[in-house]
Amino acid sequence: MRTAIITTTTAIRMTDALFRLMTWLSPSYPVGGFSYSHGLEAAVEAGLVKDRASLVDWLTHVLRHGSGMIDAVALAATWRAESEAALDEIADLASALKGSAELALESELQGAAFAKITLATWPSDPLARFVARRAGKAMPHAVTVGIACTQSIPVELAITAYLQAFTANLVSAAVRLVPLGQTDGQLALAALAPVVAEIAALAQTKTLDDIGTASPMVDVLSMIHETQYTRLFRS
Q: Residue 216 maps to which CATH number?
């Protein structure tokens, strides 16, 4: 009987953790993710992303060599951090590694929005202290999510869900921009699932010294987007 009670308690805790994670990274969570394309709008305008195959190639590169890997490693490092000074170092580095002003703003505004709504609905002392300490400084989205997850959510689940949400948001943008049909959008997301799993596993083996970017075309297109004549998205 005692084993059954322990198992039930563990299941309840896991269900609560999963519920929180799904809520925090849902498209309905008010962080404004729908308004960003991560330079994808300029890539479509330039004809570099024009169908499902080119979208999958583009997002695979972003995940492996751009913000996907940076954010995954930053989230993992945040989850492992043992001091507030370490959290500040991670936040500063994660922000500095963004290749353009728009990409940095995309992460920082979503991070600030995530912190605000999460503190109002799912209070967290570590997140509250981080927000108070970072007044006027960057609070990257991956770092704020990582801090919220440290109390109850396994790091592998947190990274996987974060990357899935990041990828799904960009696929949704491409469905509107290319445009792609809804079925092609879901096929693209399914094709990217192994890449998300790969990066989520790899990120847990990396340290801050290991991360960098190798996605110059994404950065250049993001800079071009800053002055693009007509725009649907903020980045």
A: 1.10.4190.10
